[in-house]
Amino acid sequence: VSQSRYYFGALSINGSIDARGSSGSWERAGAGGSIYLSGGLLTGTGTIDASGGGSTTSEGAGGGGRIAIYHTSLAGNFSYPTNALANIRAYGGFVTSNSTRNGAAGTIFMKSAAETFGRLIINNNSSFATDQNNRRTIFNFPTSLPSTSLSFNPATGNSTLTLANAFVERYGDSDAFVGMYLNPNIGQNSTQTVTDDTMFEVISQNDNTLTVRGNITAVATSGNVFQLNLRLDELRVVGTGILEVNNGVILTDKLDVTNGQIVGTGFVETTTTDALNLNANGGVIRLNNFSASSM
Fold this sequence. Notes:
Elements: E1 3-7, E2 10-12, E3 16-18, E4 34-38, E5 41-43, E6 47-49, E7 66-71, E8 73-74, H1 82-87, E9 88-89, E10 107-112, E11 119-123, E12 137-139, E13 145-146, E14 149-153, E15 158-162, E16 181-183, E17 200-205, E18 209-213, E19 225-232, E20 234-238, E21 242-245, E22 248-251, E23 255-256, E24 261-263, E25 267-270, E26 278-279, E27 284-286, E28 289-292
Parallel strand pairs: 1-4, 2-5, 3-6, 4-7, 5-8, 6-9, 7-10, 11-20, 12-21, 19-22, 20-23, 21-24, 22-25, 23-26, 24-27, 25-28
Antiparallel strand pairs: 10-11, 13-19, 14-15, 15-18, 16-17, 16-19, 17-18
């Protein structure tokens, strides 16, 4: 699987940054790779592609890869949202002889300097007609488990939560949960919503421990059930993409499920009804909890 990192002041892409998976015939196709871009203006007439490889037999296509873009502004083929959705791609691969073996979409994360949390896009290029478990993009983080140890270090202002082997990342990422938000005690209050709970940003991790900013001992004790949540400004699940959420996704702005699906045992919650722009045209939200709350 290919990995590409680019740091730039201004970047004009008039060809392609390509991390597509290899195609297959009598063997399984390859998954898309990863692309990381960080800089100022991103523009050009080209494409950024980490799609999975296709296949001509029933052996199975590759899933889409991962793209992360940190920027100050977007223009040309990458202006957001219309051009970016068409030219920044992490589609699942396509099987010409058996569409039930198509690959799941990968993830596209974009964050401007002006945004707090950034935007996540799950887009599968309208490749599918029905829900199939093998082509879901899955958010399934360690959660609903009791911690064995909590501690706060006043000198650093940071806290740790420990549970043996709870944070081992199967794909070898050393910081898979960094940037997520920890609710160290899901029973902080009696309300159903979580946006009125105190949460803490994860700043580092190892297999057994999460380190977060702030004092978690103010709201939790050892043995409380914790939960990891993803915070975003915007979430788009489009183009027959399917996102399975078994944890929490908290949004400050837009949720778009045009011709997509959000399913699972978790929840999606928005922090303000004023900023919510829900477009479920042709889409499905099937979760334990979906809510919009004015704070």
